[in-house]
Structures are given as C-alpha cells and as structure tokens.
Specification:
One of its GO terms (molecular function) is thiamine diphosphokinase activity. The protein is an alpha/beta fold and 213 residues long. Helices cover 21% and strands 37% of the residues. The protein has two domains: 129 residues, 3-Layer(aba) Sandwich (Rossmann fold); 71 residues, Thiamin pyrophosphokinase, thiamin-binding domain (Jelly Rolls, Sandwich), CATH 2.60.120. The longest helix has 11 residues.
Length: 213
C-alpha cells in the first residue's frame, strides 16, 4: 500500500502535526510546504514549485533535503499544487493526504477542493486535511468509513447539482436512497452510531467532510 503526503503552502497554523503520520511512504513538498517538511526534519521524496517566495539560501537547503526536485517558472497555467496532484497520481498510490491546502486565501482553498476530483477520477482515496477537518470528493459507489474519535462529526454534501440515491448506514441519522441537492443542510453534522459506517449513491459528486469543534 502506497500512501502519499502532499504539503502545500497554506498557513502552517492550519497544518496538523505531520510527525503523527508515520504511515506515509512518499512525501511531496510544494513551495513553502517543502520548507515546513524541512523544518520538521522529514526527508522529502519530491520538492516542487517556483520557489518565488523563499530565500535563495533556504531553497538550496530544501532541495538538499529532497530526493528529487521539480522547479517551474512562476508564470504558468496550472497552480503548483495541481502539478503536485498530477505527480502524486503518477505514483499510483492507494491513498493521498493533502495538508496546507486550506486556510489563507479562499480562492486557493476552493480550487484545491475542486482539484480533488482528479484523485476521484483515478479511484484514489484522497483527503484534504487541516487541524479541524478532513474532506474528500467521491464519485458514485459504495464506501465504508471507520469511526474516527478525532473527528466525531461527518457531513455528506452535494458537490454536484444533486446526488441521487444516497444511503447512509451505521450513522446516527440514516438515509435510504435519498436525493440531496446543493444548498440543502439535510445531511450536515451526522455522527457515527456504529464502529463502521457505510454510504452509497448512484450519481453525482459527493463532498464528505469529517470535522470537530
């Protein structure tokens, strides 16, 4: 099982303790995210970015901490993080965890959520993670979720215009083949009622968010 961790350039205050993720096999640092990995003493497998916001001396130290480096021009069509997502997909991982991609600028945070669809299209279990939330975009199918004591609340939101035949089992508020639409709060702040919950839907794109207060 290959698990990839991507650390983006979002506010460090939003990033949980990365040393608590020893199961990650392959680390990608993106711009200032690479600096955060360097500061933590985590050996980075790939460093990516245009590095336009970092001191040149620091850039060399960060690069020396990495097994591989990909540097781009500052002016390009894709964001650094989108290019990092593509590199992660090329590793053919089973799971990708993305840190430092929320908080700060809302335009960056929102496009980062949208970019998660890249992983869904390749059948990769991927999550955006900060200190209070974990979120994922899912395409139609059946999924299991193990009860997570760190994140007691779980919401199922329509990312597409509608999500059809959503069923929830093992949760405090179950559903049976229900269509949910954008803008509805029906499926927000659910909780586990069993150690494993299962959700299923037949069409649309579902945004799943685990959270805590």
């Amino acid at each position: 099982m290959t698990k990839v961790g991507i650390v983006a350039a979002g506010p460090v205050a939003e990033i949980p303790d990365l040393t608590a993720y020893p199961h990650i096999d392959y680390w990608i640092g993106v711009d200032e995210g690479a600096k955060h990995l360097y500061d933590l003493g985590i050996k980075t497998d790939l460093v990516m970015g245009d590095f336009d916001s970092l001191d040149s001396n620091l850039i060399e130290k960060i690069k020396s901490n990495a097994r591989n480096v990909i540097e781009f021009p500052a002016i390009k069509d894709e964001t650094d993080l989108e290019l990092a997502f593509i590199e992660a997909i090329n590793e053919k991982p089973e799971q990708v965890l993305v840190f430092g991609a929320t908080g700060g600028r809302l335009d960056h945070a929102w496009i980062n959520v949208q970019l998660m669809k890249l992983f869904s299209e390749h059948h990769i279990d991927a999550w955006l993670i900060n200190k209070q939330n974990e979120m994922s975009l899912k395409l139609p199918g059946t999924y299991d979720m193990i009860q997570d004591s760190l994140f007691p609340y779980v919401s199922f939101l329509a990312y597409s215009e509608k999500v059809e035949n959503l069923s929830l089992k093992g949760f405090k508020y179950p559903l049976n083949e229900t269509t949910i639409v954008q803008g509805s709060s029906l499926t927000i702040s659910n909780e586990w009622s069993e150690k494993k919950g299962t959700y299923f839907f037949t069409s649309g794109i579902l945004l799943v968010i685990k959270s805590r207060d």
